[in-house]
Amino acid sequence: MKTIDDIDVSGKRVLVRADLNVPLDGGRITDDGRIRASVPTIEALRGRGAKVIVCSHLGRPKGAPEPEFSLAPVAARLGELLGADVAFATDTVGDSARATVGKLADGEVALLENLRFNPGETAKDDTERGAFADRLADLAEVYVGDGFGAVHRKHASVYDVPARLPHAVGGLIATELDVLKRLTDDVQRPYAVILGGSKVSDKLGVIDSLLERADRILVGGGMVFTFLAAQGHEVGKSLLERDQIDRVREYLARAEANGVEFVLPVDVIAATAFAADADHAVVSVEAIPADRLGLDIGPASGELFADKLADAQTVFWNGPMGVFEMEPYSHGTRAVAQGLIDSDAFTVVGGGDSAAAVRTLGFDENAFGHISTGGGASLEYLEGKSLPGLEALEG
């Protein structure tokens, strides 16, 4: 793949596909990590005299403008981080986009409105998607792919535009790929993986792959209750995917056969309701009350997980251990984050929720080896899947 150092961008209009899909509370950005991660590539292009046109999606609008998914707040924050005005186009490929791009001077930056406000961005039909890609490509002379969180999507701005313009990979994607290779091709062992989040079905593919690669797999979050149910435990009203119990039993058996240590919690925080002020208590996984739901791993489990990370040389973490947004159920995630920091391992925090947890809980991001911007893309890479956005940049 060519990098931005391999192409001439001086005086040229450069379309940067970034991932600025940040969480919003109304018009307020609650975690600007992905915006900050996009800044180095944009700054590098500005410094070399490019006219930088940034594009991204935000949320999941249905192919038409939805004000709550506007990138206008992102444009303002990006400008603050760059210390320069960022012109904002109120459409993606229409009159505003063309006028905004046409006014750019060398070193200036514009942001287009949410790509998913146009149905062509996510269209399954190649012709419809290609027509939108044609209009996007017409705005620029060079394409830079730097939205790692979207490279697993066969979308117009990710897959089709690179075929229409000279293209290169941005610094963010280059860094992400270097890190992922350290988790697949050149792993320092012991290699521990921590998986959390709500649904085990979201992680089936990566678990299947990791059973052949990891030395130790630790499981928490809502997905753990399917594992506990597979072991015959009562899980009360906790999140449970009954249709995955047999698959989980197969994974536990394979792990034992392969010599992969599977580590499950020994206690959980069980609450009467999904609420911060609900009555809650620490209970053994063997004694979860039928009328309660588990919302975090317990303190003994936090210590167990940290102990299992102590001798690791490589750690990949994807998914929080509990409902970290609510203080009573944040301690398991905090214990795991601290365990990563205290280890001597190369640590990778993968996924939007895990990265948000690190920042929300007040940890220094620099204490981790790498904080990824792409949860789904990271997981699919680790599964060994082909990622359309990376394929397009290789051409």
UniProtKB/TrEMBL annotation:
Annotated (2R)-3-phosphoglycerate binding sites: R34, R116, R153
For the ligand (ATP), the binding residues are K203, G294, E325, G351, G352, D353, S354
Enzyme nomenclature, EC number: 2.7.2.3
CDD domains, A to Z: Phosphoglycerate_kinase (cd00318)
Query: One Pfam family for this entry, by name?
Result: PGK
For this UniProt entry, the molecular function terms from Gene Ontology, in alphabetical order, are: ADP binding; ATP binding; phosphoglycerate kinase activity
Subcellular location(s) per record: Cytoplasm
Protein's recorded name: Phosphoglycerate kinase
What lineage, starting at the top, does this entry show?
A: Bacteria, Bacillati, Actinomycetota, Actinomycetes, Kitasatosporales
